[in-house]
Design brief:
Elements (H helix, E strand, L loop, with lengths): L12 H20 L6 H8 L3 H8 L2 H15 L9 H17 L1 H14 L3 H28 L8 H19 L5 H16 L6
Helix pairs in contact: 1-2, 1-4, 1-6, 2-3, 4-7, 5-7, 5-8, 5-9, 6-7, 7-8, 8-9
Length: about 200
């Protein structure tokens, strides 16, 4: 079976082309939204051949899927502070920073909007969050091992509980969450976890 378009990651010129194309695609999404994402325009912006883009990614949704995979890989690793609350605060701070960033925040809004009407984009977005949640889940698991949280706590559910209100604020108000919002999200998820809300 052949690989999905855009998922082969050799080095050299091919890697440089991929980097340039994904950067251009992200720029278009942030500036104009999913509806205006066009492979020919992306090729022009990336200064690569249109045929190369069509052959490698095949479609706009293939390009978005690869962009999300790349973003998941490039996201900052988890920060371990020695306590569950500290780790959840670090996670909330990273999510807040991402959503407040002029390019990243606009890009996420565009991709989330596209995911509501395009199944392949929705699948790619789910994979992105699976990677990011799995990156931070060990912080909660370590908290369980230290006795900070009840045994059986669903680590991934706790991590999702931190970011959910921050994304909701962005999507419902159009305004990126601020630092107090990130602190509230971390505190609320932690309090719920301590109370056993996330015990499976």
């Amino acid at each position: 079976m052949s690989a999905e378009p855009g998922t082969v990651r050799p080095g050299g010129r091919t890697a440089r082309v991929r980097t340039a194309v994904l950067r251009a695609a992200g720029d278009v999404l942030a500036e104009r939204g999913f509806a205006h994402l066009d492979l020919a325009d992306v090729a022009r912006r990336a200064e690569v051949g249109k045929t190369t883009v069509y052959r490698r990614w095949g479609s706009v949704t293939g390009l978005v899927a690869d962009l999300l995979a790349d973003m998941a890989e490039q996201s900052l690793p988890r920060e371990e502070t020695g306590s569950v609350l500290g780790d959840l605060r670090a996670n909330a701070s990273l999510v807040r920073w991402t959503l407040a960033d002029a390019r990243q925040g606009a890009l996420f809004r565009a991709v989330i909007a596209a995911a509501t009407c395009d199944e392949r984009t929705a699948q790619a977005l789910r994979r992105f969050y699976e990677v990011r949640v799995a990156e931070w889940a060990p912080c909660v698991e370590q908290g369980v091992a230290r006795g900070e949280l009840p045994p059986g706590t669903d680590a991934k559910a706790v991590v999702r509980a931190v970011s959910a209100p921050l994304y909701y604020e962005l999507l419902t108000t159009g305004t990126a969450p601020d630092t107090p919002a990130a602190e509230r999200a971390a505190q609320a998820a932690y309090a719920a976890a301590v109370a056993g809300v996330y015990v499976s």
